[in-house]
Each structure stands twice: as structure tokens, then as C-alpha cells.
Amino acid sequence: MSFARLSVLLFACTVAVQAVSDFKISTQVARDDSSWTDDDAFQSAILNTTNSYRSAHGADSLTWDDTLAAYALNHSQSCVFEHSGGDYGENLAAGYESPEASVEAWGDEGDSYSCSDPGFSDDTGHFTQLVWKSTTTVGCARVNCDGTNDTPGWYVTCEYDPAGNIVSDDNQYFIDNVEC
């Protein structure tokens, strides 16, 4: 198979996986403290919590990318709780009490990840993107939807580059990028 055909196949698989991921919606009561309302506090909360999970799984810390954050904001502003279908890895959460709790919901999926049978699962897709070793940057945004389009409270979108959750026949990408 040519490199070009393989690249197209991998891209199609990545987009397909992103499209079928479950979402994380919480019924917790969100607090309107600085972790939601102050840009620096929000960014720190996301990065600190994300990088804590990544460290525990042998992945390097992510750095913040303003272009990814702008993309995430553009997507979130509609308060429509669905994936953007873009070129980046993407995690969504809504209704959590804090940015940290949103990331923790994704990270806690790791309890269900099977190291003996690695690969993509709707139940663990947020976790695997969160700790994907090849990912180097993240940018996130939040919008207080407060029920608009049935999206509760604060709606968080995080974009990751390069995208994770790359599916292959032998799950080698998961073996290489998700450490238990």
C-alpha cells in the first residue's frame, strides 16, 4: 500500500473514531469561581490536571496552544454538544463543577482501559486521547451554556495536536502511545 493511501486510511479511521466517541455530561452544580471565569486560572487548571494524568502514564507534559484554544472556542460557542469533526483530537465535557472535574472525568476512564487488550473503546476514548504520548499540545475553551441547546452549565472543548486514538489493524498505535 502506498504511503498516500495509508495516510488517507489512517485519517479516515481517526475521524471515524472521533465521531463515535461518547460524551461526558455531568449533573454536578458548577461553581462560577476563577477556574471558570479567569483565562489564566482556566488554562492552569486544565494543564495541571491533564499533565498529572499524562505523568502517571509515562507521557510528556502538554503545552498550551492558542490556535487550538481559538478553534475550541469557535466550536463551543454554539452550545451544541457534539464533536466538531475537525483535524484535531477532541474531548468534550459539560455540566461539571470545575475544569479539573471535567479533565478528571476523562482521565478516570483509564480505570476501564485494558492494558492486556489495548485499542479504542467508546468507554475509554477520552482517557486515551488525554494520555496519548505523541500528542504535544492542547488548547481548550469553555462557554457557560446554562441549558442552551440542552447543554448544561459550563461546556468544555479541548483540542489535541497531533490527534490520538489512531486505529490500526493490530492496535500498534495504542501499544506505542498509551502506557498503563
Set out the fold topology.
Elements: H1 3-20, E1 24-25, H2 34-37, H3 39-56, E2 63-64, H4 66-76, E3 89-94, H5 99-107, H6 125-131, E4 137-144, E5 154-161, H7 172-177
Parallel strand pairs: 1-3, 2-4
Antiparallel strand pairs: 3-5, 4-5
Q: From the alpha-carbon coordinates, what is the Rg to the nearest angstrom?
A: 16 Å
Structural class by secondary-structure content: alpha/beta
Shape: globular
Number of helices: 7
How would you characterize this protein structure?
The chain is α/β, with parallel strands linked by helices and 180 residues long. It has a single domain, classed as CAP (Pathogenesis-related Protein p14a, 3-Layer(aba) Sandwich), CATH 3.40.33. It is built from seven helices and five strands, in the order αβααβαβααββα. The protein has helices at 3-20, 34-37, 39-56, 66-76, 99-107, 125-131, 172-177, and strands at 24-25, 63-64, 89-94, 137-144, 154-161. It has a five-stranded mixed β-sheet. Helix 3 packs parallel to helix 5 (99-107). The protein is globular, with a radius of gyration of 16 Å. Mean pLDDT is 87; it is low at 1-22. Pfam families: CAP. Residues 41-168 form the SCP domain. This is SCP-like extracellular protein.
Question: Can you summarize this structure?
Answer:
The chain is an alpha/beta fold and 180 residues long. The chain contains seven helices and five strands; from the N terminus they run αβααβαβααββα. The protein has one domain (3-177): Pathogenesis-related Protein p14a (3-Layer(aba) Sandwich), CATH 3.40.33.
